[in-house]
Amino acid sequence: MADIKRFKDMVAEANEIVDRVTAEKAVSLHGDADVLFVDLRDVRELQRDGLIPGAFHCPRGMLEFWIDPESPYAKEEFQSGKRFVFYCASGWRSALSARTAVEMGLSGVSHIESGFTGWKDAGGPIEDKNK
Length: 131
Prior knowledge:
This protein is an alpha/beta fold. It is built from six helices and five strands, in the order αβαβαβαβαβα. It is about 35% helix and about 15% strand. It has a five-stranded parallel beta sheet with strand order 1-5-4-2-3. The longest helix has 12 residues, at about 90-105. About 30% of the residues are buried. The mean pLDDT is about 95.
């Protein structure tokens, strides 16, 4: 059987390439007008668990289309020149997403290495998505 690349290997490789921030560091960045938090989780996760106040929701499946300025689905948030802090539930999807964003030429990209779970554990504010 040929070598198979496992997700854990892919996440580890991504974390070697992209900037990672601790949840505590991310909490200290919250409220900075030059920082945009990007929530990559599924909408059901947002509804169930809430999100970081002011975060931009980008479903993981749309990331490449929303980043590329030549895409018909491009979002101006990704053309803002801000620093981007990606996050998911545990830091796996955000690591892979941050790597993709960097490979696509987006600058100022990092991700919360422990995800939204770490954010909550660090006492970061949470907004109820259902309100």
